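Minutes, project huddle
Topic: does the predicted pose make sense with flavin mononucleotide bound?
PN asked that the exact inputs be recorded in the minutes so nobody has to dig through chat later. Recorded below.
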Amino acid sequence: MKVLIAYLSYSGNTEETAQMIAERCREAKMEVEMHQIGVDPPINPEEYALICLGTFTWDRGSTPEEMKEFVLEIGYKPGHIAVFGSGDTQFGGDELFCRAVDKLWTFYGSKWPMLKIEQSPRGSQERKVIEWTEGVLYDVRNTTGNSKNVGTTPSE
Ligand SMILES: Cc1cc2nc3c(=O)[nH]c(=O)nc-3n(C[C@H](O)[C@H](O)[C@H](O)COP(=O)(O)O)c2cc1C
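Predicted holo structure (tokens), as shared on screen:
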């Protein structure tokens, strides 16, 4: 089974999270492809059993332009997108924390919980990344349909 991990990262936090997700996917014997948004050539979503889409948040809760362009490039709403990202509560507290993740998750109507990481995933948040990845992979493998109850809830 092929997994695409597509992410946008300027200072490395979302990339680190993407790499942690990739590591767990490989341990689970999935074939992983990494995609740097804004750098790598367009993708064909249908090639993958799962797409993990990662973004940071910018400018008072905004989605970065490169991510918007990637969404336009895909051109439709694939049903197999899981959304993750990093942010920082110092920029607007809980209300604006990882707002781009909220927006993408809602836009794609993702059937998996979203994953929000405060800056770097290293340390105490590592467990959160692993559990999120395992929850999504378990569901993809067992194709149970609606899995909103797996792992963390969207409001976490
Ligand atoms: C100018 C600026 C604005 C930001 N605005 C937000 C924001 O509204 N919400 C948020 O959660 N994080 C915000 N952040 C924090 C980044 O999203 C956070 O540092 C993120 O981990 C960066 O990801 P990257 O290392 O993958 O580039 C902002 C950072 C900068 C520099």
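Observations noted during the meeting:
- The mean pLDDT is 93.
- Helices lie at 13-27, 65-74, 93-96, 99-108, 126-142.
No decisions taken; revisit at the next huddle.
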